[in-house]
Predict the structure of Por secretion system C-terminal sorting domain-containing protein.
Amino acid sequence: MKFPLLFILIPFVAFGQIQIGQTIDGEAEGDLFGTNVSISSDGNVIAIGAFDNDGNGINSGHVRIYENQGGTWTQIGQDIDGEAIGDLSGTSVSLSCNGRIVAIGASNNNNNKGHVRIYQNNNNSWTQIGQDIDGSAAQRFFGRSVSLSCDGNTVAIGSNINIANNPVSGQVGVYRNQNNNWVRIGNNINDAVSANVLGTVVSLSDNGSTVAIGTPFDVGDGVLSGNVRVFKNQGESWVQIGNDITSEMVGDQFGRELSLSGDGTVIAISSLVDGVDENNQIGEVRIYKDEGVNWEQIGTNIVGEMPGDQFGRGLSLSTNGNIVAIGARLNDNDNGISSGHVRVFQFQNDLWRQIGNDIDGEMPGDQSGISVSLSDNGSIVAIGSNLSNGGKGHVRIFDLSDTLLTVKEEQSITSRFKLFPNPAPSNVTIELPEEQAIVIQDITMYNSLGQRVLSTNETIINTSQFPKGIYIVQIRTAEGIASKKLIVD
């Protein structure tokens, strides 16, 4: 174990997720619609990128924005097309909180200089705000990643190749809208080491004052180990907050995706490789909290299901940092090879626990989960499947409300059920007050690795069958789910 046993990962299935409205399909085969998605705070508006769309020339790319109108996803305004052939517009997309402003990256514009355009919804027509924000020179791939502040007035832009500073080192610039003119805040954030590819992914806090930057190919702790840094705007200068957040293993590609909480104090970070076998690409996600001096991990690593899943290729954190949606685009499930899936986890009582069922892709090869985006409160998730229907791609949106357990609900149940004796040398009894007429529907035990070791309806468990250590006992009732720590001695 890399981390203390106090933090235990345990999955559970509550109620099912419900799809909202119809599946939103791409325009044409090969568009790769859904490679990137971004949803508004309330989950009613979604921006979807299709960077291989040919609307303004081959691979010019486009973005479409939809609104939930009475349970039907209806396109708002026109397609926002790329400027020219080969632009790959829609490489990255980011919506403001109210869904009325969208930032769009076109990383291959103008001989791969790249640029970003920001648009506003004016009477159901998308009108550009200010000038194009252009890359500084050819082969910069400016716009590889974008992230908007909540009000849409600040944008962080990643350029994951920056030859002027150091070959393939990358850089990030943050810009503010000043009277319809995008003005850079402070200096660009650069990487001093070549080949690190800083800026592959960026995430901005709601107020635009904190930016997280992923460098998945950082070589500081080993080849392709990866690295994440967080910076805060202090007097128009970008100052690093806390330590570098680094991977422990060679080849992890730590920082391949990341997502920052609204206040910038919690961050979810994925590695497409698990750090044990760099070829298996099972993937994992770690969540960290700013503790004032350093970033400290909360909970254990959330690990993918099977080798090759690329768990963490899609990643989105709720505004409060307590709910995370994770896509595994190459997962093989009952719907076929590489159909993909998404899992959603909630953090309560120091535990990351799966809520609801796996949300599986529909068909073999769909690669569902290549992109995910959560509403502010984590109750709605958008999921991109860019290779469905011959690469036409589609997006589905799900309501997770019935799967979420509030802190108050869990604390209420937890306070009423007992485990005794604890520590338990041979048997443990699970008890709820009879006068409250709460019926235990089922009981599950998990070991310190988050693996299920027992499922039962019996309230007396023979613990002598288990090795000594720390376990989690989870009960499910009609009122909800609750868990307690058990020590087998």
